[in-house]
Write a structure and sequence with these properties.
Helices cover 0% and strands 53% of the residues. The protein is an all-beta fold and 144 residues long. It is elongated.
């Protein structure tokens, strides 16, 4: 603040988003609650959005909520919640991104789910059955 005559002037500096708290890979069990953290600073204040591993925006639901802080909170984790998530903090000056993987385990039923960022796939193993879900370009159709 600077005083000019009888008037006060306030200075405000604009800044690109800066992720202060980034999401980390987490290993959880079926039914657990979990939060992926994503906190950012910047001027103007950045908005935080989340996408899943195929780039679809995460929407609030009764079990999955983007908190006012920007964190992504899951209530009672399900198999379909496992995978890769990306948080994006954005304002008019730019964007910063970070990602994490939710790894789901339940040793009682031999369920292991882990995302593979390189392939854009995630694996679901249940007992002796396995399902591989992948993202592919239109000219690369994969059959399993």
């Amino acid at each position: 603040m600077k005083l000019i005559g009888n008037e006060q002037c306030y200075y405000s500096f604009a800044g690109r988003p800066d992720l202060k708290l980034r999401p980390l890979d987490q290993t959880v069990r079926l039914g657990d609650n979990v939060t992926l953290y994503c906190r950012a600073s910047g001027t103007p204040s950045p908005t935080i959005k989340w996408t899943n591993e195929v780039g679809v925006m995460v929407q609030n639901s009764s079990r999955v909520v983007i908190l006012p802080t920007g964190d992504l909170h899951f209530v009672s984790i399900r198999i379909q919640d496992a995978g890769y998530y990306r948080c994006m903090a954005e304002n008019r000056l730019g964007r910063e991104e970070a990602s994490a993987t939710l790894i789901l385990i339940d040793l009682g039923e031999n369920i292991i789910i882990k995302s593979n960022e390189i392939l854009g796939c995630f694996f679901v193993c249940y007992a002796y059955f396995a399902n591989l879900v992948c993202q592919a370009d239109l000219d690369e159709i994969l059959f399993f």
